[in-house]
Amino acid sequence: MTGMEQRRLGRTGCDVGVVGLGCWQLGADWGDVADAMAVLHAAADSGVTFFDTADVYGDGRSEQFVGRLLRERPGEQLTVATKAGRRAEPLVPEAFTLEALRDWTDRSRRHLGLDVLDLVQLHCPPTPVYDDDRVFDALDTLVQDGALVAYGVSVETTAEALRAIARPGVASVQVVLNVFRRKPLEEVLPAAAAAGVGIVARVPLASGLLSGSYDATTRFAADDHRSYNRHGEAFDVGETFSGVPYDVGVAAAQEVAALTPAGTTTAALALRWVLDQPGVTTVIPGARTPEQARANAAAAALAPLDPQTAQALEAVYDRSVREHVHARW
Ligand SMILES: NC(=O)c1ccc[n+]([C@@H]2O[C@H](COP(=O)([O-])OP(=O)(O)OC[C@H]3O[C@@H](n4cnc5c(N)ncnc54)[C@H](OP(=O)(O)O)[C@@H]3O)[C@@H](O)[C@H]2O)c1
């Protein structure tokens, strides 16, 4: 296994590789993943030590795959972050009781085969939850009970991120951050760094747009969120192509692709940009094949982007993307 740069994941106290693996697609509730275990092992073989999943991905299948990875690689320092809260029905603030959180996390413990969960993130909870002391007291109770080591929040908006960072028990915040989603640079990353809260950067490839390989003819399966959530029909629009209209995103991504240095890929350039932002702990690209997992892990070994490339990426954002997303979140 290659050694990857490690960073401290906020108040969890553990160090994780700077490129992790997003495991949403491994539940196969969208996309066409032939062999989830091959993707997981390719990532781990490439030095990935941080795996981000959720209890709802494939209704538990993603967690079960990750649990199998842990059993197949005993003795390795792998950190698993899961999420809880989206199994609430209805999805209302009142659903976030100690009893419900205990039920949800016990199910995750079973699926992952872990007595103690490394990190549980509230999964884009309703906004009032951020101000509800009882929810965070319940999470503290689960830590005291030994069910989890630490908790964090996966947020939709920068305002929610700032509220989560202000919570003394929150170890990490997961936020959309990529070349087409720069708003966290303004307040969220500095606040997290000042508070010692880890930042997990999700959707770093703008759902694949930042591979530079999509065009007007690209088609996605009907059960892929890039078909059914393109305009935010099923969940927050920012989760699909970072909320950028598809045609605008394709054109901007082609400008990004033109900036790719020789010998690397546009995906790795996009991931390196995220890793270069002060305050970021780890980036969690989803990978649908072992080759993608290996290519993404390679971004950890790239040199930081030179100032000209960084400025050119900012110019693409300012010219084409900012007006569509900046004020929205
Ligand atoms: N609410 C939440 O908490 C939340 C929401 C969304 C995501 N997440 C987390 O964030 C993770 C990442 O998000 P995401 O998977 O939606 O978006 P992403 O990482 O921005 O994009 C992933 C997609 O990009 C393409 N890709 C990946 N690596 C590539 C490479 N090396 N070269 C070319 N194409 C590549 C693949 O699609 P194709 O092969 O189809 O092109 C892949 O499915 C998820 O797995 C999940 O863990 C959390």
Main β-sheet, spatial strand arrangement: 3-4-5-6-7-8-9-10
The CATH topology, please? TIM Barrel
CATH class: Alpha Beta
Low-confidence stretches: none
Give the bound compounds: NADP nicotinamide-adenine-dinucleotide phosphate
Number of continuous helical runs: 11
Taken from the alpha-carbon principal axes, the silhouette is globular
Please report the total strand number as a whole number: 10
User: Gap between N and C termini, in Å?
Assistant: 39 Å
The percentage helix is: 25-40%
Mean pLDDT: 95
CATH architecture: Alpha-Beta Barrel
Short characterization:
The protein has helices at residues 36-45, 61-72, 98-112, 133-144, 158-166, 188-195, 225-228, 246-257, 266-275, 290-297, 307-325, and strands at residues 6-8, 15-17, 21-22, 50-52, 79-84, 117-123, 148-154, 170-176, 198-202, 282-283. With 329 residues, it is α/β, with parallel strands linked by helices. The model has no long low-confidence stretch (mean pLDDT 95).
What can you see in these coordinates?
By secondary structure, the chain is an alpha/beta fold. The protein has a single domain (6-328), classed as TIM Barrel. The protein contains eleven helices and ten strands. An eight-stranded parallel beta sheet has the order 3-4-5-6-7-8-9-10, with helices on one face. Strands 1-2 form a two-stranded antiparallel sheet. The model has no long low-confidence stretch (mean pLDDT 95). Bound molecules: NADP nicotinamide-adenine-dinucleotide phosphate. NADP nicotinamide-adenine-dinucleotide phosphate binds at residues 22-25, 52, 83, 123-124, 154, 174, 202-208, 211, 239, 267, 284-288, 292, 295-296.
